[in-house]
Amino acid sequence: MKPALALLALLAAAPAEAASSSALTGQHALYDLTLTKLRTHDITGATGQMSFNVVDGCTGWATTQHMTLLIRNVDGTLDKSVSDYMTWESKNGKTLTFTVRESDNDGPEQVDDSGTATRNPDGSGVVDYTAPTKVQYKLPKGTLFPMQHTEALLAAGDNGQNFIAPLLFDGTGTTGAQATFVTVLKHLKGGKTPWPALDGIPSTDVDILFFYRKNDDETPNFRTSMRYFDDGVATNLVLDFGDFVMSGKLVKLTIPPSPCPK
After folding, report:
1. Per the domain annotation, does 259 fall within a domain?
2. From the CB of residue 38, how many other CB atoms can be counted at a distance below 10 Å?
3. CB crowding 155-179: b at 16 or more within 10 Å, else e
4. Cβ of 29: how many Cβ atoms within 10 Å?
5. What sign has the CA pseudo-torsion 165, 159, 197, 87?
6. Domain contains 262
7. Cβ neighbours of residue 109 under 8 Å, at least 6 residues apart?
8. Is residue 261 part of a domain?
9. 198 backbone dihedrals φ, ψ, rounded to 5°
10. Dihedral through CA 131, CA 101, CA 6, CA 63, nearest 10?
11. What's the average pLDDT block by block, 10 residues per block, for the chain (262 residues)?
12. Per the domain annotation, does 45 fall within a domain?
């Protein structure tokens, strides 16, 4: 389920470096996860919670995501999965450091992925993994880091684009960049929302497919949809894990003031 770890930190459609007037902001968001669809007889229920935090470090973005899932099996047993995803992404688009940790059924936490990626202006670059093994992969031209991906996605909505198909490297996989296909479903003007901090901010409804970059695979390994506000806050989450689908409802949101000089 690691593709879900970076679903909020998300295209080679529009280079994010050109978005000099980025409206992205720090945030502390909490989501309740509930089961909405089952495609297997092995699972009878699922619930969970996810927190997502972004800190504006002025020269970069620090993100942390903590997700807990409880899966009820057909025999009545429960499987508990806890994951933590942490990144530092420089605002100049050159560097991303990442760590993914997971534990199952209250067992010891283990590092699934960690390392550092460096990127050239054209999106090419390299990623050096320190876990699970020390290995290096090249990043193809057009690869975006997570916050760049978010900026490009929002720019597509602002510009009236319907589809974008970029490469993304977010550190949640062990083989380098992955392909994504984004459908812009709707772009909405700012208005009244249940969250005063989001009032008046335009937003974009998107559907995102994630693909492994091997064997021309046409079946996504993960799918998600959401409403993205122009400041980077997401609501109305849908997480499609294949065997089951969960929805994420925003239940708590704080937008801290920017610590950076204007």
Report:
1. no
2. 14
3. bbbeeebeebebbbbbbbbbebbbb
4. 23
5. positive
6. no
7. 82, 84, 101, 102, 103
8. no
9. -105, -5
10. -100
11. 49 33 85 96 95 95 96 94 96 96 87 95 96 94 93 86 92 89 92 95 94 73 92 95 94 94 80
12. yes
Considering its fold, how many domains does the chain have in total?
A: 1
- Extract the tokens encoding 25: 């902001």
Handedness of CA 63, 200, 256, 16 (dihedral sign): positive
3-state class (DSSP) for residue 18:
helix
The amino acid at 256: P
- CA dist list (Å): 133 to 38, 85, 128, 137: 35, 18, 10, 12
Are the C-beta atoms of 24 and 150 separated by less than 8 Å? yes
Residue 173 DSSP SS3: coil
And the tokens for 258? 């920017």
Residue 147's SS3 state is: helix
Which residue matches tokens 């409403």? Answer: 227
Going by DSSP bridges, is the β-strand pair 78-90/60-73 parallel, antiparallel, or unpaired?
antiparallel
Q: Tell me the residue range of the domain where 201 lies.
A: 2-254
